Amino acid sequence: MTTILFSYKDHTLPRGGGAVHGFHVVEQLKRLGHRLITAEPNTDSRLERRPRTLEALPALLSEAGAVYLRSDGRPFDLAMLALNRARYRLPVVIEINAMAEEQLAYGDGPLRRVHVALLREQYRLMARGSSVVVCVSELLAEHVRATYGLGHDRVLVVPNGGTPAAAPPEPRSDGVFRVVWAGGARWPWQALDTVLEATELLVREVPNAEVVLYTDARERALPGLPGLRVEAPVPHSELKSRLEQADVALCLYRPIPGSPAGFYNSPLKLFDYMAAGLAVVASRLGQITEVIEDGTSGILVDDDAPAIARELAALARDTERRRALGAAALRRIRDRYSWDHTGDGLARALSLAAGV
What we know:
CATH class of the largest domain: Alpha Beta
Order of helices and strands: EHEEHEHEHEHEEHEEHEHEHEHHH
C-alpha cells in the first residue's frame, strides 16, 4: 500500500461530466489498496482530509509516498510540484485530459489567445514536474509528447471506462422506438444540431420513434419537433435506469474547433451506453473508432444527419440486430473497457513513476 497525495478538484459522487472520471479514479486507487490523502476542500470519506495551505505542504509531502494530480494549472498544485522537485522527489503521476487550445473553441480574440498561451505554459510546467503523464487517448498523448517534450514512455494512454450491466436491457412492450442522447448544449463539439436534424428525419420515417435528450439546454430554446422529448440532466447514478428504457443511444461529436489534435476525447457517454448493453450509433472520430468495432459492437457514422436517420430507421425495424449490437457492446466493455481496466492502467503508471 502506498499513501498517495491526491490533488483532483472533482472526485466526489458525480452528477456527470469530468467528475465521473475523478470519482472512478479514486475508486480504482482504493481497489488497488492505496491510502489517499488530499487537501481538496470538497472530498468524501474515501480520502483523508488535510489542510490546504502552503504552510501545510511540507507535512503533506512528508506523509505521502507518491503524488497523483490532474493538470488544471492551479497555483497550489504548481507550488506542490516545485517543492516536491526541490526537496522530496516523490514519484508524480499527472493526468492531462485536456489541452489549452480547447479554449479557442469559444472565441479567437487576442485576450483569449493570451489566456491560452498562459495555460499552455502552466501545463508545460506541470508536465515537466511529473514522473509519468496519463492521457485518456492516444491523440492527446501524441500532442502532450510533442508539445511538452516528453519521451514516449513517460506518457501512457489510460482510457475512460464503464461499469458493465449484468445483461442488456429487457425488451419493452410500449411500442415506442426510443433513442437517447445526453450532452451539454454549450459545447460546440457535441453536435446537438445534427441530433435535432436527424430526429426530424427519423420521426418522418418511423412515426413511433421518440428521441430523448438529457441536456442543459432549455426546452424552449429547442425546436418543438414531433417525437422530441427534452429532459434535464440526471445524476450519473440515475443514468443506468434511464438507459434501460432505451433502444439505441447516440454518441455524436465533431472535431473540436482550434484543437491541434482533432477529436482527442475519451467520451464517458460512449462507455456508459455500451456498458448498459445498448446499440450505439457514434461518430467516426478519434478513440471512438478504436472502442467500437463498426457493425459489430456499434455503428460508426459521419456528421451527416440523413445518414444517421437512415441508420436509426433501419435499427427501428430490426430488433434482433439492435440486441446483437448491444450484447457485443456490453462484451466489449467487460473484456477491455471497464473501470477496472482503467484502474489497471493507473497501476502501470504508478509502477512506472516509482521507477523513474
